[in-house]
Amino acid sequence: MKQQSKKQRQFFGVALLTILVVLSNGFINSGNGSLVKAQESGSDGTSILPIIATPTVLAIDSSNAANLYAGTINGVFKSSDSGASWRQVGLRGLYVSTLTIAPSDPNILYAGIYPTGNCNEYTNRVFKSTNGGTGWQPLGAFTYLNGCEEILAVAVAPSNPNVLYVSIYSEDVIPTLARSDDGGNNFVELSGFYFPVVAVDSYNPYTVYVGTYGYEPNYNYNGLYKSANGGFDLTNIALAGYGISALTLDPRRRGIRAPFEKSRTIYAAANIYLASSGEIFQGLFKSVSGAWFTINNGLESLIGTSNGIRSLVIDPNNPDILYVGTNGSGVFQSTDGGASWTPFNIGLPNLSISSLAITNDTSAILYAIAGDSIFKFINNRWVRLPDLIVPPPPGPIPGSSGSPKGN
Fold it and tell me: Which residue segment(s) compose the domain that 342 sits in?
């Protein structure tokens, strides 16, 4: 039995938020704690309430820290001013479950779609933008899928924006890892495992690491796998018997004299899945030069609970500064490479963190999705950013005369 995903749970969040909008007589949160009028009523007095898109995943332009992207349950949004304002740039009406920017070309983005409603109507699950999110094209359809699949992860090779890996889950067919070498025009099916996390080597696009989902012990292929030939052959390298909920590779080389594969630093969050209680966190692990050890000092309260780690990011200026986002205990920071952790939650009203992202510049500004909102860490505290408002659809607004105002 598959655990209810975080995307499914977020439907309840957006429903609650809509109720709150109604109770506040059409006012919404501006992002700084105040309420502002969202939209005027129609000419006949009909109330026109805004649609607020719940964010699911964050991505940041590696060459311009002011450009942020948010995948939501209603398309992709972009901010060009570090989160001060947002606009919807594509995939309206689609539930974006994964969003990835090609590290070597920030104009290229890939979005994975989560099925909602009558999912059999869908024929495409992955979309691509080549102009910074302004336009989106569906990629080559996966012929072995039936439309009800969930895209778990899309990982782009840092050294080649045309090489990408897509992890797919379906209750009707065997879960699949697929790879494209031509920017998504064609895919080859690689494996029948369930891989919720995928990471590609910084220098070799065909060295890939994947983590399996933490099902009960009768599934004996759990843990962390590595392939040196583009995913065709996978070898378990660590954490057998566990599922992996977060996987991050330090992009810098460690140990100039050592062969590159031996000097890699890897972080992986481990869990097990129990039908009675869902994902149970088992600890955070680190590998340096091939040796694995636990780094749970300060995270002990999470072990054995469902408040596990969902994401981990590394400060681009100092590899010893790390941040993890958890399922119910907020954000933790380490300044010593994971040897110890401290809570990092000042200003966060919701401690359920579904996504973390950090700018790739000297400022290293941290962003998080906490609950149904996006937050930014500035001036030693978390600050809520404005809600993501879905613009009116083309055509006249019900209860008004003429065409809607432009976006």
Answer: 54-390
Surface-to-core class of residue 105, CB atoms within 10 Å of its CB (0-12 exposed, 13-18 middle, 19+ buried): middle
Q: How many CA atoms lie within 13 A of 192 on its CB side?
A: 6
Q: pLDDT tens-digit profile of 108-143? A: 999 998 887 666 665 678 999 999 999 999 986 665
Residue pLDDT, tens place only, 74-89: 999 999 999 999 999 9
* 8 Å CB contact between 313 and 356: yes
Count CA atoms within 13 Å of residue 9 on its CB side: 11
Residue 268 near residue 285, CB atoms below 8 Å? yes
- 72 by Cβ neighbours in 10 Å (0-12 / 13-18 / 19+) ranks as buried
Beta-bridge mates of residue 8? none
Residue 11 within any structural domain of the chain: no
- Select from 297, 301, 307 the least CA-distant residue to 277: 307
- Concatenating the DSSP letter of every residue in 7-48 gives HHHHHHHHHHHHHHHHHTTTEEE-SSS-EEE--PPPTTS---
Task: Provide the residue type at 63 as one letter.
Answer: S
Cα–Cα distance for residue pair 13/65, rounded to 1 Å: 29
Provide the CATH number for the domain around residue 107.
2.130.10.10
Which residues, in sequence order, are bridge partners of residue 36? 28
